[in-house]
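Worked example 2:
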Amino acid sequence: MEINHTRRALIITVLIMIFLGGCNLDPSNIADPLQGTTWTLKSFAGKELIPGSKMTATFKDGKISGSASCNRYFASYQTRADALIVEGLGWTEMACLNPEGIMAQESEIMHMLGSAVSHQIEGDRLVIQDTKGEQLIFTPRQDDQGN
């Protein structure tokens, strides 16, 4: 009878190991919370956007893209827990004169996005923080806002 109990315990242990081996407990494989979301920028570095300008950000399949108001931008991104890495940031190179200051605003926002280090979804806000601790604050894009 002792052999039967030992054999049963061994079988149960092997089954548990097989079951747990099939479970990937690596936190890097947790679903990307930004996947399939689109946001509208509300403020950057504590400043409001220039009236008449807007910026959007769409996260899909490891890529971020959107409108920076005058120009369109694109990059790859990765998340791990609250870390955010944006790589290969590029944008079109149209020159816009209106609204006044739009090019400087776009440049500052693109620099902040390119130096992102973390992100948090706080209620209905996405907060991206750069290497200087400055924040880009987004809210969900409404369908009537376009690109």
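Helices lie at 2-22, 102-114. The longest strand covers residues 72-80.
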